[in-house]
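Data availability (excerpt). The following record was deposited with the supplementary files.
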Amino acid sequence: MSDFIEHLLTECLLIIIMTLFVCVHIHANLFASADAFDTVGRERPRRARRRARDNPEETAMVMEWSTDSVPAAARFDQWREACCEHVYALTPERASRGSAFHGAITRRQLGALDVTDIACDGHVVRRREQDISECPGDTYYIYLQRQGRAWFDQRQRRCVAEAGDIVIADPNLAFSTGTDGAFDFRLWRIDRARLRPLLALRSGELPMLRIGREQAERELIASWLDTLLRQHASLSPASLELAVGTLCALVAGAAGAAPELREPTKLARRQALLQRVMREVERRAPEMDLTPERIATSAGLSLRSLHQLFLLADCSFHEFLTRTRLARAHALLRDPSARHLGTAEIGFAAGFGEVSTFYRRFRQRYGMTPGEWRAG
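Predicted structure:
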């Protein structure tokens, strides 16, 4: 699907980003990207490693840190240092040190986005005014609760995040957080200078905002984040930059966009919705009886709205479905685990209901028959 993303980002998202950033005169920041592993002047905790993975979702350089190789008595102290280096300046606190502490941090950079996964034993974490004064953040963050639940206290308000919930927050507002079980979450950090001009901040501050699983905005943001994580390796730097800009527009739309930017954020929302629909089509393409009506129903759209979404793409719904099925057949024909299947059976497995249609479309797309591709 990377070719579709490339086209969509180039043709449509360019409009979004140009509108967003020209309006607020910050186009100079479009290509700004912080070093993925800048520290805050502290000694680097032990056992930090960087490596490139073979997984296409993780071809960016990855930093990994774990308490596993740290002596049990020193683990929590080392954890505190690691959090300050790779997250924000924080004050972790643990009520009891009766058992060895376990924690792991995985960090990677996707263009201008910093993505950090954290899994650790439960404890209380505070970002105090003193922490903020010593090391103010130059980002906003999107917090995704992956497993379990966590609570956040900020200015006499409590926010509880369940698995799948998203929290949008400003690290320069003091807060505390904890969990009854273990922490398991992902942080997406966005440059402050890039997102702030898009927000309608009445007091100049962004209070912590929970976006629950029941809210449509959550699904759009989460879907876009997932697409970025899965597809970033196949995007050009310019397209990745545009995708990050769309994410900023989606976040601004959820948190409250500046009045002059509300139309562009609506366009970003439609773009994210299109990506979500495309992913659903990809997932269900092998169903021979898949229709636009069924996809529209599953997405909570009218049939007319579904077809209007595809006006943002370079193809119609039916063309995208056909290309998706062809791509699936193309891969299966060279898949060793599918060698026992004939070419016609592979066409059926990809979702084609007629062999003649499958052969004709395959030749049009790839310039050869399925059998020729398999034998090549």
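Summary of structural features: The longest strand covers residues 182-191.
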